[in-house]
What we know:
By secondary structure, the chain is an alpha/beta fold. It has helices at 17-26, 35-43, 51-55, 70-77, 83-92, 107-111, 118-123, 128-138, 152-162, 167-192, 263-277, 310-320, 322-325, 338-344, 359-364, 434-447, 473-486, 505-513, 528-538, and strands at residues 6-11, 30-33, 48-50, 99-103, 144-146, 221-227, 237-242, 254-257, 291-297, 300-307, 328-332, 349-354, 372-375, 400-405, 408-413, 425-426, 455-458, 463-467, 495-498, 518-521, 541-544. Helix 1 runs parallel beside helix 9 (152-162), helix 12 (310-320) runs parallel beside helix 14 and helix 18 (505-513) runs parallel beside helix 19 (528-538).
Amino acid sequence: MNTPQTALLSVSDKTGIVELAQALQAQGVKLLSTGGTAKLLAEKGLAVTEVAEMTGFPEMLDGRVKTLHPRVHGGLLARRDMPAHMAALKEHGINTIDFLVVNLYPFEATVAKAGCTLEDAIENIDIGGPAMVRSAAKNWKDVAVLTDAAQYTTVIDELKAKGKVSDKTKLGLSIAAFNRISQYDGAISDYLSAIQMGEAVPAGDKAPVLDIFPGQSNGRFVKVQDLRYGENSHQQAALYRDLFPAPGSLVTAKQLQGKELSYNNIADADAAWECVKSFNMGAGSDPSLAAACVIVKHANPCGVAVGAHALEAYSKAFQTDPTSAFGGIIALNTELDEAAAQQISKQFVEVLMAPSFTPAALEVFKTKVNVRILQIDLPAPLGASYSGGSTAWDQGRNAMDMKRIGSGILLQTADNHALALSDLKVVTTKQPTAQELNDLLFAWTVAKYVKSNAIVFCKGGMTMGVGAGQMSRLDSARIASIKAGHANLSLAGTVVASDAFFPFRDGLDVVVDQGATCIIQPGGSMRDQEVIDAANERGVSMVFSGVRHFRH
Length: 552
């Protein structure tokens, strides 16, 4: 690129724009600008020329037309290495534009507001900005295009050091610009194609009714890192995150130590983290259940417990299935202190997650250099835990779940349903005790994260046996009881959660034979009465949740 001559700045977000303009002007760059940006720069004592003055054509149509002009796009698109291009500019009195600084109208933020009208949405669709960005990004060898305030420092530093912007940086800025345009257009497409038209166009002064499944779905994901391989060593893989990740989600984690996370590590860590977040405590919750621990192996919880502190929660969770916990993923919803760290360090663990770690806890793992330690902030709870009987918070969760199939995807709303005591329907003669009701909600929360068919035995805020992913619910019940036996845990007086209804009484008989005294299931089978009669015959209590939790 020749010595920089002109920069065009037109931004809706003014963050850092004055400092960038000052750095450009210090390099002898002439400043062009529009509207509010020009006014701000002039107020800061910078010499700036309005685009309308440069084009000789005023802004019109309430600002809809201001940069759509040959003097703008000619200056951006002309190749400096092509004599014919430069001759055309000279013939028409057009100067080159060497820097373009644009961020677009805030369409995403506008439509995210409650009650956003169709008119507001339409007026926040930028036309001139994306057109200029595309022109500049196409001509990246000659034009540095900045679309995010986070890019300003790099450009300022290069200008100060070398008086120009490197080709590597300009290409990177161009790629980022095209990515931003793609994200922007995707957001517009998602919004507009979600409008339910009915018999008439929605009134411009009213918020339109939006379908949760738009006519076109435009995924917008940003690559976080390449992974060594996928599920197996012959597969390639990479980690992407949502353009706007939810607070408290795994992709927001800060890795404090350990090896690079693998594909399977990430999948299992997400399962553990999503489960442990379900036990985040709200105001007024029982302090004796202030900590939760989840141990996951191959995407299934093999031990879940709550306790007064991290050590108690971990110790109880580990007891469920010490064999499967070997090489597992551990997540806590509370700070990890030295006492818990000392106990956890005695086993082989792949990934350890918590919202915070004491310095002493981190010191314990310094010699365990391969243990991957992740710090993830928890979203603020909206209500009490399961023991408080209120609806569980659902912040930090995906709104949608996606599953890839051949040449397509399945989209569904995420299973964020939370159960409260008031939702339960007792269907047997025998009534659950207060302790059993708390354990039922605990077991039901765990069952939601266990692969179907799922059977979960629990007692005293602790899993006692987990049966996961079997083709038969009966087999899951048997496996859960077998695993409890291997862990030397008695199932006497336990409660059981089944993620879907019992199709026959045989599954219920298995769990009662093992010592269960109370069962929670969705209900909804044509043989519900048969199962209810069996529960009454066996002298146990049973409640219906009315909600199924298949997890495939």
